[in-house]
Amino acid sequence: QSERTLVIVKPDGYRRGLTGEVLRRIEAKGYVLAELKVATPDRERLAKHYAEHEGKPFYQPLLEFMSSGPATFAVVEGHRCIEGFRALAGATDPTAALPGTIRGDLGRDWGEKVQANIVHGSDSPESAEREIGIWFA
Ligand code: CMP
């Protein structure tokens, strides 16, 4: 049956004017935008969202970065869209991400402590439902 994933165009993507390009690629792939909003992520919800990374060296810089300005949140729908969006996004490190992917085509290393890698996509159906619950409560 159909599946949902949470996609975030992170503050770096928003600042660089890449929101439309990311949403265009999602739609061109054939997935459906079920919900969409622009908001500056608050630290309380970011702490929930990134709970699994607490204690890692990039955790605090990640919360700083993610709360630094507006981001776009999308609930994306379609068969196997979790796997499909992660393929569209490319590897976490934008330097290593293959050309043809969002991060590979549009991202680079900016010498920061955190990977400013334009997009987030849920990594499993459980994460997707949990994350959608946090941002679209
Ligand atoms: P995301 O998929 O949103 O989940 C965790 C985020 O932390 C990730 O994207 C990157 O932005 C960042 N991240 C993951 N691994 C590292 C790392 N090794 N160094 C810096 N930032 C990282």
From TrEMBL:
<dbReference type="InterPro" id="IPR001564">
    <property type="entry name" value="Nucleoside_diP_kinase"/>
</dbReference>
<feature type="domain" description="Nucleoside diphosphate kinase-like">
    <location>
        <begin position="2"/>
        <end position="137"/>
    </location>
</feature>
<dbReference type="InterPro" id="IPR034907">
    <property type="entry name" value="NDK-like_dom"/>
</dbReference>
<feature type="binding site">
    <location>
        <position position="58"/>
    </location>
    <ligand>
        <name>ATP</name>
    </ligand>
</feature>
<dbReference type="InterPro" id="IPR023005">
    <property type="entry name" value="Nucleoside_diP_kinase_AS"/>
</dbReference>
<dbReference type="InterPro" id="IPR036850">
    <property type="entry name" value="NDK-like_dom_sf"/>
</dbReference>
<keyword id="KW-0067">ATP-binding</keyword>
<comment type="similarity">
    <text>Belongs to the NDK family.</text>
</comment>
<dbReference type="GO" id="GO:0046872">
    <property type="term" value="F:metal ion binding"/>
</dbReference>
<feature type="binding site">
    <location>
        <position position="117"/>
    </location>
    <ligand>
        <name>ATP</name>
    </ligand>
</feature>
<feature type="active site" description="Pros-phosphohistidine intermediate">
    <location>
        <position position="120"/>
    </location>
</feature>
<dbReference type="GO" id="GO:0006228">
    <property type="term" value="P:UTP biosynthetic process"/>
</dbReference>
<dbReference type="GO" id="GO:0006183">
    <property type="term" value="P:GTP biosynthetic process"/>
</dbReference>
<dbReference type="GO" id="GO:0006241">
    <property type="term" value="P:CTP biosynthetic process"/>
</dbReference>
<dbReference type="GO" id="GO:0004550">
    <property type="term" value="F:nucleoside diphosphate kinase activity"/>
</dbReference>
<keyword id="KW-0418">Kinase</keyword>
<dbReference type="Pfam" id="PF00334">
    <property type="entry name" value="NDK"/>
</dbReference>
<keyword id="KW-0460">Magnesium</keyword>
<feature type="binding site">
    <location>
        <position position="92"/>
    </location>
    <ligand>
        <name>ATP</name>
    </ligand>
</feature>
<keyword id="KW-0547">Nucleotide-binding</keyword>
<keyword id="KW-0479">Metal-binding</keyword>
<feature type="binding site">
    <location>
        <position position="86"/>
    </location>
    <ligand>
        <name>ATP</name>
    </ligand>
</feature>
<protein>
    <recommendedName>
        <fullName>Nucleoside diphosphate kinase</fullName>
        <ecNumber>2.7.4.6</ecNumber>
    </recommendedName>
</protein>
<feature type="binding site">
    <location>
        <position position="103"/>
    </location>
    <ligand>
        <name>ATP</name>
    </ligand>
</feature>
<feature type="binding site">
    <location>
        <position position="10"/>
    </location>
    <ligand>
        <name>ATP</name>
    </ligand>
</feature>
<dbReference type="GO" id="GO:0005524">
    <property type="term" value="F:ATP binding"/>
</dbReference>
<keyword id="KW-0808">Transferase</keyword>
<keyword id="KW-0546">Nucleotide metabolism</keyword>
